[in-house]
Amino acid sequence: MDNTTSSKRYCHRCGNEIPQGDFCPVCGAKQLSLTKGSSWGNMDREAMRNFRIASAIMILAQISSVPLVFSSFLGGSLVPTTQNSPNLSGFFFIIGIVVLATSLIAVAGMYFYSKSFKELMEKDNRGFSFPHTSALILIFIGVVLGLLYFVLLSTIASFTTSTATSGPPSGFGTMIAILGLMGIFGIIALVCAIGVLIGQWRVGSEYNSDLIHIGVILSIIPVLSVIGSILFFIASSKILNSIAPTEEGPISSV
């Protein structure tokens, strides 16, 4: 068996062969310690493929959340002080369904971000371990918050159809409990969201992508977050196209 083939090394960033040294002669990236026939090229492609899928899903989730903003203002103006709005419960129920669906879409996006970070942990475990864990936690919290918000809106809807009475409505305690849980999970989600942003920033640093860095900054601003996801999609597509698929050389036996 040809021992020369088994000792080939490939750049983890661009996939080109590295004859010697610790730096790629094509893109200049510093290399990790590579073993017989191993290559980062295919792993990079898989990581960026998942990153691009996650970005596309998050664009869909963020666009679908836009009507919720207007619906919230509309719902607030429609909440009656009397019992003259018999159809308002249906309005809140529909909004709850849309919120739950949007949460599940966002959860799917987090799933693919977690897959991307997990791939990149093979190269930089310390740099992408926290973002990967954060994305996994957000998957769980996203489902829980979506369900809690749905129950909250259903409770509010029941208020609009109940007869005005003296004192708090019968579901007032339930609503307070739900708001408390949403506050706790919301704080955890905020910390994990910062972890995901850190992971996205490190992806931009890993592949020298200013577009991803700009996208991270825009993602911090709620009204501009969808633009950030669009930049993530564009940047990951460019990176994916620039990474050449590589084949692992056969490992020779002595």
Structure report:
This protein has 254 residues and is an all-alpha fold. It folds into two domains: 1-37, no CATH class; 40-242, no CATH class. 69% of the residues lie in helices and 0% in strands. It has helices at 3-6, 41-64, 66-78, 88-121, 125-161, 172-206, 210-220, 225-242. Residues 1-6, 33-38, 75-86 and 248-254 have low confidence and may be disordered.
Shape category: elongated
Mean pLDDT: 76
Strand content: under 5%
Q: For the terminal residues, how far apart are their CA atoms? A: 9 Å
Tell me about the biggest sheet? none
How do the SSEs run, as a string of H and E? HHHHHHHH
Total of domains: 2
Q: Any low-confidence stretches, pLDDT <50, length ≥5?
A: 1-6, 33-38, 75-86, 248-254
Number of strand segments: 0
* Helix run count: 8
Oligomer: single chain
SS-based class: mainly alpha
Helix content: 55-70%
- What is the CA-atom radius of gyration, in angstroms? 24 Å
What order do the helices and strands come in, and which of them pair?
Elements: H1 3-6, H2 41-64, H3 66-78, H4 88-121, H5 125-161, H6 172-206, H7 210-220, H8 225-242
Primary descriptors:
mainly alpha; 2 domains; 254 residues; 8 helices
Summarize the structure.
This protein has about 250 residues and is mainly alpha-helical.
